[in-house]
Amino acid sequence: MRQLVPKIAEATRAERASLMLLDDVSHELTVRAAVGLPPEAIASRVALGRPIAGWVALHGRPLLLASGSEQPAEIQRAMRRREITSALSVPVSSERRVIGVLNVARLNGHPFAPPDLRSTALLGERIGLYLEAAQLHGALERRQALSATTSEERSTGLLVVDGALRVVSANPGFLRATGLDASQAIGRELRSVLPWVRHAADLEGRVHEALGAHRQVDGGQLIHRAPGLPVRVYSCRIHPLETGRGLERAVVMLEDITARERLADALAPAIAHELRNPLANALACAQLLLERPLRKRDRVDGLLRIRTSVQRAVAIVESLLRVATSAGPSIQEIDINDLLAGTPVLVDDRLTSQNVRLTMDLAPELPRMRADPVLLQQVFTNLVFNACAAMEDGGSLTVGTSVRDGMLEILFADTGHGIRAEHLTRIFDPFFTTRGPAGTGLGLTISRAIVEQHRGTIEVHSQEGWGTTVTLRLPVVSVAASAA
Question: CATH: 3.30.450.40, 3.40.1190.10, 3.30.750.44, 3.30.2270.10. Which one for 4-140?
Answer without folding.
Answer: 3.30.450.40
